[in-house]
């Protein structure tokens, strides 16, 4: 059996996990080892080709992190937890039309937007709360409440 090309293997991975966001490094670690010329450089090349072909999309999610995901045909923004790195898709048509309106108001033809909202997810917020409680609330806080 001929080994699969890295492009095919990478695309297959995105189809297998159609709702996951993966960095190039995560893609590289999940591509089957029998893939032809399996290296981080070939994964980057494959990602660039798949982006060009419109089969996947990429998003900047803060610092030096870029994630890739299957192009599901709808534009969306991202909500990122700055503690654990969880990424949520925001499919909000009102937001999309607002981007277009902002562009149109300045006589730009709208092409795309890259919006990332940072925050702390419910799980991280809950574990932070219990950590604070374990450590004992700061003086005065309890009495004022
Ligand atoms: Zn979190
Ligand atoms: Zn996404």
Provide the descriptors you would attach to this structure in a database record.
43% helix, two-stranded antiparallel sheet, alpha+beta, 6 helices, 2 domains, 145 residues
Secondary structure: number of strands = 5
Helix content: 40-55%
What is the arithmetic mean of pLDDT? Answer: 88
- Main β-sheet, in a few words? 3 strands, mixed
CATH level 1 class label of the largest domain: Mainly Alpha
Order of neighbouring strands in the sheet with most strands: 4-3-5
CATH superfamily of the largest domain: Winged helix-like DNA-binding domain superfamily/Winged helix DNA-binding domain
Q: Number of domains in the coordinates?
A: 2
Compounds present?
Answer: zinc ion
The portion of residues forming beta strands comes to 15-25%
Overall structural class, as computed from helix and strand content, comes to alpha+beta
Corresponding CATH architecture of the largest domain: Orthogonal Bundle
Q: What is the count of helical runs?
A: 6
Plain-language structure description:
The protein is of the alpha+beta class and 145 residues long. It folds into two domains: 1-72, Arc Repressor Mutant, subunit A; 74-138, Ferric-uptake regulator, C-terminal dimerisarion domain (Dna Ligase, domain 1, 2-Layer Sandwich). It contains six helices and five strands, in the order αααββββαβαα. The protein has helices spanning 6-16, 24-30, 40-52, 93-105, 122-135, 141-144; strands at residues 56-60, 66-70, 77-81, 87-90, 116-119. Strands 4-3-5 form a three-stranded mixed β-sheet, with no helix packed on it. It has a two-stranded antiparallel sheet with strand order 1-2. Strand 3 (77-81) and strand 4 form a beta hairpin. Helix 1 crosses helix 3 (40-52) and helix 2 (24-30) crosses helix 3 (40-52). The longest helix is centred in the C-terminal third of the chain and has 14 residues, at 122-135. It is flat and about 65 Å long. It starts with 5 loop residues before the first helix and ends with a helix. The mean pLDDT is 88. The structure holds zinc ion (ZN) (2 copies). One zinc ion is lined by residues 21, 69, 76, 78, 89. One zinc ion is lined by residues 81, 83-84, 86, 120-121, 123-124.
């Amino acid at each position: 059996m001929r080994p699969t090309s890295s492009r095919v293997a990478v695309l297959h991975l995105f189809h297998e996990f159609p709702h996951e966001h993966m960095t190039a490094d995560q893609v590289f670690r999940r591509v089957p080892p029998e893939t032809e010329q399996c290296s981080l450089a070939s994964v980057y090349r494959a990602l660039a080709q798949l982006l060009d072909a419109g089969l996947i999309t990429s998003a900047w999610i803060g610092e030096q992190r870029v994630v890739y995901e299957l192009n599901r045909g709808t534009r969306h923004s991202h909500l990122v937890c700055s503690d654990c790195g969880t990424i949520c898709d925001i499919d909000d048509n009102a937001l999309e039309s607002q981007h277009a309106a902002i562009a149109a108001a300045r006589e730009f033809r709208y092409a795309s937007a890259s919006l990332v909202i940072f925050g702390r997810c419910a799980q991280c917020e809950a574990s932070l709360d219990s950590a604070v409680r374990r450590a004992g609330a700061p003086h005065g806080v309890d009495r004022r409440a």
